[in-house]
Design brief:
By secondary structure, the protein is an alpha+beta fold. The protein has helices at 2-11, 19-52, 66-77, 96-107, 112-115, 135-146, 158-199, 202-210, 215-251, 261-292; strands spanning 55-60, 84-85, 88-89, 91-94, 123-127, 151-155. The strands form 2 sheets. A 4-stranded antiparallel sheet has the order 4-5-1-6. A hairpin with a 2-residue loop joins strand 2 (84-85) and strand 3 (88-89). Helix 9 (215-251) packs antiparallel against helix 10 (261-292). The relative contact order is 0.16. Mean pLDDT is 78; it is low at 1-12.
């Protein structure tokens, strides 16, 4: 009989409450947050890809020499708003002959036969960097290019770019709003999970108070356990998130274009930190609540 009592006392240690249930709940909540975080990363990457597809056609004066054309190309390549790919400025030259061929292929009409000459101009096509893709900056870029000696005219599809920027901004705001809402829901869920888990410890907390244990001594095992549970949950959620992304990349190869490893790793680290902080604070609030309760309120 005495041995059985000793065993029952040993089983119920300070800070010991259902571990698996808490870790599972926190992991699930953090995993959902991670999914929304990934959607935000992919939306940002998609926005950059779309914006980097913005091009400006710079039409040149007629009868420019090879030296003048080469000088113009260097001038355009040095502009800070021109996109770089593998440290190569995205500037390409289209001669008026190439333009005539492209027009013939697209329309099937040969205007040279009835005009007698090629009315097109040589042109450079500049790919604009994503950081310079809003409407005001593009208008300033156009003005800057038109001031360049040897440039006849600069064109780009302003209405399309405004539509792209507007839609991307709306999509980002909606995703961000959903992420914030989910974060609040996750905080509440984790907080309630830990409060429920600590409910079974309320009498043990009161017993420790009655034998003279300080608040710090009582809180420490709960806080340590909650912090480790948050870290463990964050790690598990990050692993599942990583496995899910790898499976998605394997099934849909085009998704790799939206991959941003640096931001994804930052997101996974953030999940671990968020799990640890929320677990710690939720446990701290719950234990303090039970420490302040009267004996009647515990029942």
């Amino acid at each position: 009989m005495a041995n059985q009592k000793i065993k029952s006392v040993k089983k119920k240690k300070l800070g010991s409450y259902p571990h698996t249930m808490v870790v599972f709940s926190i992991t699930l909540a953090l995993f959902v947050i991670g999914l929304f975080g990934l959607l935000l990363i992919y939306a940002g990457k998609l926005s950059d890809i779309v914006k980097e597809g913005i091009e400006m056609q710079v039409y040149l004066d007629r009868d420019l020499t090879e030296a003048q054309l080469a000088k113009l190309e260097k001038t355009f390549a040095a502009k800070p708003y021109v996109a770089q790919k593998h440290e190569t400025p995205q500037v390409r030259f289209i001669s008026k002959e190439e333009g005539a061929k492209a027009f013939l292929n697209e329309s099937g009409e040969d205007f040279l036969t009835f005009l007698g000459e090629n009315p097109l101009r040589d042109a450079y096509v500049l790919q604009i960097d994503a950081d310079h893709s809003d409407s005001l900056q593009l208008a300033n870029i156009r003005t800057d290019l038109e001031k360049t000696s040897g440039v006849f005219e600069v064109q780009y599809v302003a209405s399309l770019i405004e539509s792209i920027n507007s839609n991307m901004k709306k999509a980002s705001i909606v995703l961000l709003l959903f992420t914030v809402i989910m974060l609040v829901v996750v905080i509440i869920l984790i907080n309630n999970t830990i409060k429920l888990a600590l409910f079974s410890q309320r009498f043990l907390i009161r017993s420790m108070q009655l034998v003279g244990a300080t608040s710090y001594f009582i809180q420490r095992p709960f806080l340590n356990r909650a912090a480790w549970q948050g870290i463990m949950s964050g790690i598990i959620a990050s692993v599942f998130l990583f496995l899910l992304t790898q499976y998605a990349y394997h099934q849909v190869e085009e998704l790799k274009l939206l991959q941003d490893e640096e931001q994804t790793y930052i997101l996974m680290i953030a999940l671990v930190v968020i799990g640890c902080i929320i677990g710690f604070l939720s446990s701290y609030r719950a234990v303090r609540k039970y420490l302040r309760m009267s004996l009647d309120e515990l029942y």
